[in-house]
């Protein structure tokens, strides 16, 4: 096999809690991760030059060693002494720096694809062990589906699949730095934490309305006061019939869950004409694991 075309799927967080700040500056989290059918496409081709060449549709993205696709490729090429090279066409649709694990899922797809085209014989678990060296979210992006992520996000427990439903994605024009969000997060007795265990119960019970009711993201306590447009988008989605709307990751992307297609489609159109968001997508929950 000399080439492979892969979908690198995005994630949303149905729940995100920060349990504590560790002494080394990392944060211990409890997150409910959910794959959605919004994806970047990676076309990976084997070449004769010992090099990783990346081409992408977004001119502002790095195509050198700072691209996570490059890091993933380099890691396997070094470990396995691969003397051929690869060229990668990266077609990005997942909003960048937006709380949807866009870079991590591209890295996961690159590990998966390189394993195939070079016949490395690595199991899913072995790919996940390599993925964590690139980023805490990479192992989850290899696994996919519904999962609880703990530790710094790399300790994964599979959960039963989330109810399949339409998902509206809206990213406002603003950029939000993950570092800023974590640095400004106040963790004290007044912090309202989402009830992650209750949310897990709702997922197991396949009750979309309860899931929507108990979704929560502690990072909204930082982003919403600083970027009111996030709350405006949430309110807009709810007014258009979303059963629940929340910010994903450290934002600024907001997602809305719907219990029927027609309402979701109308909400998609309304969001596009509202001018609140720069990128708007209508997609759905995706539950197949790799
Ligand atoms: P997370 O949800 O894990 O916090 P994110 O959505 O905040 O991820 P990414 O889209 O992964 O963030 O991008 C963060 C930064 O990583 C960007 O500023 C970008 O320059 C860099 N980057 C490197 N490789 C990629 C890639 N393949 N796709 C997107 N961004 C990349």
What would a concise description of this structure say?
This protein is α+β, with helices and mostly antiparallel strands and 290 residues long. The protein is built from ten helices and eleven strands. A hairpin with a 4-residue loop joins β5 and β6.
Commentary on this structure:
By secondary structure, this protein is of the alpha+beta class. The chain folds into 2 domains: 156 residues, Ribosomal Protein S5, domain 2 (2-Layer Sandwich), CATH 3.30.230.10; 119 residues, Alpha-Beta Plaits. 34% of the residues lie in helices and 29% in strands. It has 10 helices and 11 strands. The strands form 2 sheets. Strands 1, 2, 3, 4, 5, 6 and 8 form a 7-stranded mixed beta sheet that branches. A hairpin with a 4-residue loop joins strand 5 and strand 6. The mean pLDDT is 97.
CATH class of the largest domain: Alpha Beta
Q: Any guess at the CATH architecture of the largest domain?
A: 2-Layer Sandwich
Give the total of beta strands: 11
Overall pLDDT score: 97
Helix and strand content put the structural class at: alpha+beta
CATH fold-level name of the largest domain: Ribosomal Protein S5, domain 2
Question: What shape does the CA trace take?
Answer: globular
